[in-house]
Known about the structure:
Number of helices: 10
Family: Belongs to the glycosyl hydrolase 51 family.
Bound molecules: alpha-L-arabinofuranose
CATH architecture of the largest domain: Alpha-Beta Barrel
GO molecular function, one term: alpha-L-arabinofuranosidase activity
Distance between the termini: 22 Å
CATH topology of the largest domain: TIM Barrel
Oligomer: single chain
CATH class of the largest domain: Alpha Beta
Radius of gyration: 27 Å
EC number: 3.2.1.55
Strand order of the largest sheet: 2-14-17-18-19-20-21-22
Domain Alpha-L-arabinofuranosidase C-terminal: 413-591
Largest sheet: 8 strands, parallel
Keywords: Disulfide bond, Glycoprotein, Glycosidase, Hydrolase, Signal
Helix content: 10-25%
Number of domains: 3
Structural class: alpha/beta
Amino acid sequence: LLTIDARRPGPTVPSRLGGIFFEDINHSGEGGLYAELVSNRSFMADPRAPLHWSALGGATIALDPTAPLNEALTRSLRITVRGPGSGAANDGYWGIPVRPATTYRASYFAKADGHTGPLTLALTGTDGTVYARTAAPAPGRDWRRYDLTLRTPPTAPATMEARLTVTTAGTTGTTGTLWLTQVSLFPPTYRNRPNGLRPDLMAALAALRPAFLRFPGGNYLEGNVIADRFDWKKTIGPVERRPGHRNSAWGYWSTDGLGLPEYLQMAEDLDCEPVLCVYAGYSLKGEHVTGEALRPFVQDALDQIEYITGPATSPWGARRAADGHPAPYPLTYVEVGNEDWFDTSGSYEERYAAFHDALTRTYPHLKLIATTPVRSRPYDLIDEHYYRSPAAFAAGAHLYDRRDRATPKVFVGEWAAQEGRPTPNLRAALGDAAWLTGILRNSDHVVMSCYAPLFSHVRDNIWATNLIAYDGLTSYHSPSSYAQQLLRSHRGDTVLPTEVRALPGLSAVTTRDHRTGRLYVAVVNTGGTPRTTSVRIDGIRTIEPSGRAEILSGPGPEATNTLSDPTAVVPRSVPLNGLGTRFTYTFPAYSVTVLRLHGG
Ligand code: AHR
């Protein structure tokens, strides 16, 4: 029996209950959401070799630390060219993806010595096929930026095998030395933003209807050591002035082209609020900062908040305006650090206190999120993280039922049932969905939550189970992503007490939309048998006989989506009849169902 009691409405669903958490893991940013196609574009990834670059047509290439573009980009690529067709190629992130009838924005800084001829910029297949080509002027003796477009014809294939090539053109002036740096190639981006994001991945995030964007990490925020932290001041301004940093937590270079301005623009484009995680003086291998030494880090956080929220007349607000966004961004929640329970030195108490005092003094309206309990200062939310088996997640649907409401409210800032690679299978999605029934039921106390990690490139699946995966050309939603979309888009504003009796494997929650009178009964069946269930609704006079069921299910718990079969597990919508305040419904095996009922 499943009973719903509309006489005793429960919590109002918090407006920020469901968000997203983005960090650069599994090439989520570089080679992923950040649409740049050239890998190691500014030669900063490795001081020993020009990774991802190769010589063409008898040229020799080398890193040149004596020919920096500026104080941020301290190395360039020196190319000794030896005749026509001589130059260098970049192989991108597991190849440069090419599509038919597409315009690419290319740019680079170049200079020359001895070499006087023009260049050719092209997208070339490994077999020599040229997919797009454009002529480029002869570089002069001093650094200069060049902007070009490359356009593929309608007959071009969709392939991930291309390289970007820069070679000498013509037959004269083709010997000598060329230098290149900040070599960039962008396909069309989301909303056509310069230095922008990949449209299909942004559309995938928009489908999740996030209320907020937690960023930039996660371990990515902290780095293995302090020097590798997300040092936001080095991630703003023109991209050729951003040195980049080692993403030591996840093992690759970050250009910081996806920097603070881009994260904020991303939140705005997704129509959601940024939730900022500030670096709080602790890095993953245990380095931590206390006392006087903490001051600059606290100041960095204050400046960061001014960059985000200050008027364009304030010093850091002016920097934001110069970066293209004169209007301040909204900001309500700031998280101090990440997973500081790992800091066995116990320094979080002191570190949190220092950030708390400075931040609340300057920005008293801000709400602070602590990452582990603190005694000496208050916090508005505590961030809790859960990575467990699908079964543990299904059981966890009741975790917060028992939480003492006198304790601080909760932000579940990272959670995910762990099964499936690179994305969760149906069993994990069911665990996730059951867990979400518990989050919604307890949303008087758990007021924000977001799944993690969001993204994995299929070629760099460091963290096993991620919500959405992709290669250079295409992407797909996992069953868990569909389950979350289903539960988020079929939800009312008030939780109604819902009880499931004698039905092992079922988790349920009901919400009511007071504007439309609709009831949304969300039921997860983690079991392998269909469950025929009597449903009783008390406290509502009439329920219209017809409604709809939104159902996500699959042939078995291992069913999953992949790049080659992206729609193996997708939701379907079916009409319902014979509804009322009492009816019977059979919840399919391995399913998430939302019954949409119209109450009178
Ligand atoms: O989501 C992956 C990692 O898990 C995050 O970077 C970290 O906060 C957690 O340990």
